[in-house]
Amino acid sequence: MRVSDFLVIGGGVVGISIARELKREFSDLGVTLIEKEPDCGLHASSRNSGVLHAGFYYSPDSMKARFTLQGNRMLTEYVESRNLAINRCGKLVVAKDESEHAALDELLERGRANRVELNDITEKEARSIEPRVKTFGRALFSPSTSSVDPSEVMGAMESDAVKEGVEIHRGVSFISKDSRGIHTSSGIYRTGYVVNAAGLYADKIAKCFDFSENYRILPFKGLYLYSDEPEGSLRTNIYPVPDLMNPFLGVHFTVTVTGRVKIGPTAIPAFWREHYGGLENFSFSELLEIFFREMGLMASSGFDFRRLALEEIRKYSRMYMVFLSSLLADGIKKDNYKRWGRPGIRAQLLDIKKNKLEMDFVVEGDNKSMHILNAVSPAFTCSLPFAEYVCGEIKNRLT
Description:
By secondary structure, the chain is of the alpha+beta class. Helix content is 33%, strand content 26%. It has a domain at 1-50 and 149-213 and 360-399: FAD/NAD(P)-binding domain.
């Protein structure tokens, strides 16, 4: 039996950040993190776009708006203090026609409300930033958006956590809990407080603690296509105007930390939680549960889930992905986009009572445990201030 004052379940960027913050806040207490994989951050934390978002997409009353601006600054400072790679390439949001100008105005208003630097520019000014960009009449430019290598950042955070006194036990899976403690694949852990940051399985673990009554995770598969064009073929990230009624931003260009270009991601409904490809990690019980949840969304939801699902499934086609990206920039050729990157899975939370996808972070807890139920994009950007918030909530419940 192992003993620790705090036990964090899940070694992604959120779990690592919370463990580090707990150790800072409670320096005389023990903090242990368990991760089911042989290394930390092997799922969404290292498979995301690597973009440090600026924070202008989110409604001003949301936690995402609250933490993205601060997270961008804090993570930028962290990356630079560790001499990690960063590409301060910025982001253009472009309109395909005049009908999308109203959405640009909404984003501009949100940016101002969230205190984010965001410039309303002409088409000519957009082309001075990126000569290949396509936009109708005007665009928005975010100078504080940048790109990092998420795997490199995760490695640095994990190393810092160990140096700061966090015990990390890899290859250890949560199984259950009872009066004796937390049962894992490596035995029983006795702990005073549990933090559940298990991503795709956060809802299942939360149910063991009598939380997540109204919530279930729905997985969505994110795919990227990588360009064979040379470094610097695009100068900045290029995004379309998003549909603010759903949590996905649409296919866009990301300029990586090395200056190479990729297009994506998709948001294809997955059929089990770790449905990366083929029958890898297949679970029949998850297949049944997720299928019925998705059928329920098709029958009744706050947006047209059927249209979204069909549109996203089309993005398995390399030709269709290239076509969508060609609406954003000139000179996009299918022959330059032949290599798919590693798939990622978005652990999207579904409110099963309201039958809607949760747009914001969702946290539930008490004086024994805290559960991070929805920590989707931009959770990577928000990880440091979000960890401070979670630890503040824990401290309030313990005093």
